[in-house]
Amino acid sequence: MTTDLGRFAPTRQWMRAHPLATDAVLAFGAFVSMVVGSFADPHGPHGPTFGTRTPEPFSLLLMLLGAAALVFRRRRPRTVLAVTCGLSLLELTTGEPRAPVAMCTVISLYTVAACTDRPTTWRIGLLTMAGLTGVAMLAGPLPWYAQENIGIFAWTGMAAAAGDAVRSRRAFVDAIRERAERAERTRDEEARRRVAEERLRIARDLHDVVAHHIALVNVQAGVAAHVMDKRPDQAKEALAHVRDASRSALNELRATVGLLRQSGDPEAPTEPAPGLAVLDELVDTFRHAGLPVEVIVQLGRADGPLPAAVDLAAYRVVQEALTNVRKHAGPGARAEVSVVRVGTSVEVTVLDDGGAPAADAADSAPEADDSGGHGLLGMRERTGALGGSCFAGPRYGGGYRVHAILPVG
Quick check: 351 and 336 in contact, CB under 8 A? Predict the structure, then answer.
């Protein structure tokens, strides 16, 4: 909730940013008003007159001290109220003619009422009103029913009421603002929850549809292989079913994934997903950037090609690990990459020497726990999704080591 103040908005912002200077200006204005008011005589022969009396030096000193205390009214509101009340009592009992020192008490009482709760305002306000008015009625030279005495009671009462009203309005505005912010947060959280639920539902539908079509393709392909030699017509028909089922699966996949895309997402790439076949190109980009990299790849052709998911995951692990070396290793660092097929798994290892003394390399290495960057978390998620594991941590003697195991089966 905001208020449009037009051309006064910069002034209000400055006042909020410099409260002490604002209170100093207020104190100076109150001092000038008290001094000017002390020259007025409300009991002139023909009504109130100005310039017919002069304040005493002691009264001027009390007014100056009261105005100076108002500079700190927001920092120490109760202390300032006590000081101004004491100065006002001195003026009420000794001043002749009486000067309006009680104006300082009115301002400080308003500040206390605006900064505290209502019960405190009632207690302090009634005590201040009764104390100042009682002293003015009993110790002053004027009759107890004089308008100056009643005026002290009225001004202090209005100050307490005005401060309490301002405090109530501030609390009301803060409550509305807090409620609006909470409602906005709740609305955003609800929207994100609904989006997540809808995406989960779409993913389940995608799994059901694609799994159905892939199962159909598998069955028809088995039939075609079984009858290929004896009944080629039936094999041709089975292959036609395979083609139709695969086309339907692709269409379903494209439509469902399109629902998951957002308006700001980049267009889907048309090139195939990268893999270890283009590992040399990836390594060359790091070499051109000044990072010496040695690569060893032993996959064994007799074991057949790697599954696409394993091939992509191995490529991404190497890419992210070399990126971390480039970012975090010291100057002159060297990296070693090995991709080796061991039995039914592929082991990907990326080592670096840190390029600096061991202490410096350890300080500059990324964290190995879950508090590290998103790259390490992404490598763990990729390998975990395939049933593998990934370890990343400092090496003995300096540098860093990333080791991932990807099951081929």
Answer: yes
3-state percent helix, strand, coil for the chain, nearest multiple of 5: 65, 10, 25
Give 45's DSSP letter.
Answer: B
pTM tops 0.70: no
Return d(Cα 50, Cα 151) in angstroms, integer. 19
Note the helical H segments in 95-146.
102-115, 118-139
Asked if residues 391 and 333 have their Cβ atoms less than 8 Å apart, the reply is no
**pLDDT at position 57 over 90:** no
For the chain, give the number of residues.
409
Q: What's the CA gap between 391 and 369, in Å, rounded?
A: 10
Between residues 370 and 335, the one the model is more confident about: 335
Output the CA torsion sign for 261, 265, 271, 274.
negative
Residue 47 DSSP class: B
* Distances in whole angstroms, Cα of residue 383 to Cα of each of 65, 376, 388, 401: 75, 11, 5, 16
Residue in 263, 241, 248 with CA at minimum distance from that of residue 211: 248
Q: Is the Cβ–Cβ distance between 91 and 132 less than 8 Å?
A: no
How far is the CA of 228 from the CAs of 214, 301, 303, 358, in angstroms? Answer: 20, 29, 27, 65
Token pair in block for residue 43: 């009991």
Give the span between the Cα atoms of 111 and 74, in whole angstroms.
7
pLDDT in tens, 178-203: 998 888 888 888 888 887 777 777 66
What residues contact residue 384 under an 8 Å CB cut-off, 6+ apart? 390
Distance, CA of 326 to CA of 342 (rounded, Å)? 28
Would you give the end-to-end CA distance of the chain in angstroms? 61
Q: According to DSSP H, which parts of 261-292 are helical?
A: 279-288
pLDDT at residue number 402: 92
Do strands 345-352 and 400-407 pair parallel, antiparallel, or not at all (unpaired)?
A: antiparallel
Instruction: State residue 141's pLDDT score.
Output: 67
